[in-house]
Amino acid sequence: MTAELKSSLVTSLQAAASQAGLVLVSVTQGSDFHGQPTAVFELGLPNAEAAGRTLKLELTDGFEFDKPELLPAMTAHLADEAKRLRNPRPDCYVTLGGLLFERFGHIPAEGEHVRIDDWDLRVVEMDKRRVAQVVATRTGEPADDESPNGTSDPPE
User: Fold this and answer.
1) Measured distance CA(114)–CA(120) in Å, rounded
2) Helix (H), strand (E) at residue 10
3) pLDDT exceeding 70 applies to what percent of the chain?
4) DSSP state, 154?
5) For 38-106, what is the HEC assignment?
6) Phi, psi (5° rounding) for residue 87?
7) With CB atoms counted within 10 Å of each terminal CB, which end of the chain scores lower, N or C?
8) CB 38 within 8 A of CB 61
9) Using CB atoms within 10 A of its CB, is residue 111 exposed (0-12), middle (13-18) or buried (19+)?
10) Who contacts 34 (Cβ-Cβ below 8 Å, separation ≥6)?
């Protein structure tokens, strides 16, 4: 990776990170699975909010921030990652969809449901790989016949 290109990537990534509320911690040389050079960026929060929690992002020299749609998309991705890094409890979920993915252990299908405590969460709409709509129904009683992943048959 040339110094000029690396400098261009660093400048562009710093701008996207800054807009997303992140700072560039370090840049190191890496290589992809073909042995081609890459730049490995380590990003973190601007202060000690999440000490020790960082995001690593590896980009090849073919990566171009010049495409008009790429910088906003990268900024949005980094903003989501900043939210994740700010999460004071990493064992918690940022979204309901994240909870469902973890509980099911796979991408859920429409109609699948999981029972968590006294709630039945049913996936009613998917948008490709994203949980788009969930119906939560309070059952009134904690599930005592739950399987290890929290699923159970619906009450009859």
Assistant:
1) 6
2) helix 3-19
3) 79
4) P
5) EEEEEEECCCHHHCCCCEEEEEECCCCCCCCCHHHHHHHHHHHHHHHHHCCCCCCCCCHHHHHHHHHCC
6) -55, 115
7) C
8) yes
9) exposed
10) none
Largest CA distance in the chain: 67
pLDDT tens digits along 92-148: 667 888 888 888 888 899 999 999 888 999 999 999 888 999 999 998 776 555 444
Q: Does residue 147 sit in helix, strand or coil?
A: coil
Distance, CA of 6 to CA of 11 (rounded, Å):
9
- Domain extents in the chain: 3-86, 93-156
26 membership: H or E segment, kind and range: strand 23-31
Q: How far, in Å, CA of 2 to CA of 63, rounded?
A: 13
* pLDDT of 153 above 60: no
